[in-house]
Amino acid sequence: MKPFLPVTADLHKATRFSGLSLILGFIFSIIFYTGAMAEMSQHTKQIDEFFAPWSTAATPGAAVIVIHHGKVIHRKGYGLANLEYGVPVTPETIFHSASLSKQFTAFAIGLLEYRGKVDVGKPVQYYIPEVPEFPWPVTVEQMIHHTSGLRDVTSLFALQGRNPSDVSTDQHVMRLISLQQDLNFEPGSRFMYTNAGYTLLAQIVARVGGKSFRRWTSDEIFTPLGMTHSHFNDDYSEVVPGRAYSYQPAGTAKDGNSYSKYPMNFSMVGSTGLLTTVDDLAKWMDNLITGTYGGTALRDRMIRKTKLNDGSALDYGYGLNLGSYHGVPTIRHGGTDAGFRSSLMVFPDQKLGIAILGNTAEFPAETIAQKIADLFLPQQAAPQSTEAAQTAPATGMTPDDAANVKIVPQQYSGQYLLNDGNFLHITEREDGINLQVGPTALKLYPASTTSFFITEADAGVEFSGFDSGRYSKATLRNAGVLTDGEKIETDAASPEKLAEYAGRYYLPETESFLTIKVKENSLTTWIAGQEGIGVSYAGKDYFVNPQLRVSLRFERDGKGQVIAARASMDRIQNMLLEKVTP
User: Looking at the domain that runs over 387-488, which CATH code has it been given?
Assistant: First the structure.
């Protein structure tokens, strides 16, 4: 048997080993720290470049914060919070965050739900009796997920001739909700984003909680999370020290970019209204990752996809868009009001969070958030270098596979009216066809002569009804949801024909008037003395503006006289317009 070493020898040996370990550990930590700092320095330079157009002494700007594993790894302000006084944006600058607010409203409902004070399966009238009775019940949960069918108040405001500079309060919103005669669709059958539901959710929190929504969220959310510079602004006239002002581009002046004020006088909370800083949003993003406050069960509830009545899943949770970015799961939401722009993007698996707040209308918060994400995501999650590397989830095909399918672009191009009231715009390109989404053209790749996919998302188009060399029907496939549509042909109508539709119309759901006039070979709408949207004849008392997704279907009495119209537009479907004068 080996003799035991004296205790002093053991200690001496252990001490020498421990000392060596400490030295090596220190050296490795220095190497790692130096490398990490060098990488972070490079990232800082790249992030600064993203914000360069808004980081001058003459432009509005933005604030950004990036967290990783609970630590802030980038935090900075760019440009000005106030142009008149040259006040710079800092991470402590308070911004209006627009629809980014919704996740906090949903979290408030979630807290009350888990405390047994709110049942999200109950109809909204259980908590707010003054909401009209509709053909179908609307539940609290359907409002959370935008499947309620409620008409959107932002669009209703537009039909009243309102703009962001007008004073708009929760009382105005509640009045518009009380006037709604019908829903856009059967609740639970579709997703359609609507701010009305989130105003009602805030009302529920206030009534159940026994205090104003602002006070309840401050006491139960912001204070516990340490978000000391955040609150829901329920008084547009309140002076809030340190807040950013709203701007929009006003053309180019001799001395460089010129901006004008873009005033916003909102006293609406729930759907919007959160004033916050990127510093505070860092604490919120960390809680979305950890679930520390409120518990992981509630956090998981917030990021769980809902299902429609037919069982299909929606990529929307509790005030949060749920999806992926370059294959990496994301939790995100942004916002747009007047000149304010916001984006919050969280990658829970990577424990990475990015929050951006800006104060000018042209600022691309969402795009910059994605660029920042590209710097920190694992290499395998970086953007694909070629189109050929991207695979369509529904077909399993790549653009290289699609190159073998020959098509005739003219057979598909045109406008298709979908049965949800929206339009599908298919345009021709030299090597195929595009799905036109606003100003953006997304290339459609053929999996066959009738089935097409895009590489940017799990979406595509199926064509049918081939006759006389052209397709007459199309079905939009978006994240598993199918929406059918038929091709429409706009045409010129005679002046006599157009005159039948001209006149003044009353909108019972907005308590306002709209005038329709003949302009050249089409009709144009006038609201509050301002010329609005033009629509072209599409046959059978039907007029459309596919680019703006607006349609008017006129109704006649037994004598053939035009007496009304049904309007469909962004977030409003089949709303009544009563003709009152020729």
Answer: 2.40.128.50
